[in-house]
TrEMBL record:
InterPro entries: Molybdate_resp_trans_reg, WH-like_DNA-bd_sf, WH_DNA-bd_sf. This is ModE family transcriptional regulator. It comes from the Bacteria.
Amino acid sequence: MTFTLKIKIQLLCGPEIAMGPGKADLLEAIGAHGSISAAGRAMGMSYRRAWLLVDVMNRCWREPLVETSAGSSQHGGGARLTPLGQTVLAHYRALQAGVAAAASGPDRAALVDLLLDEPKASQKD
């Protein structure tokens, strides 16, 4: 039997998702690649999508998580995580690790024991 437990942690700021797994991955990619466009390419997303995600993050926290520098005709711009961006990312990853550890405990095992391999054809079966 395959038992899949999917837990996705999202931190909301009003109606916006201030942080979630995709945004955390984007922050890591920006840190690794030094630009929003390169991070987006590495993740298979458009620059516009990556920029919109960064914009939401930067508007939802007390200070921006990503700092950008303008490019010129000779040199492209760049982006880096701010100290707050590094802190938020570290706390989010720690929260994910804690939830994953809790989700692999005895309650998960008890649920696996009670779950069918496939749904019944009807409730009367």
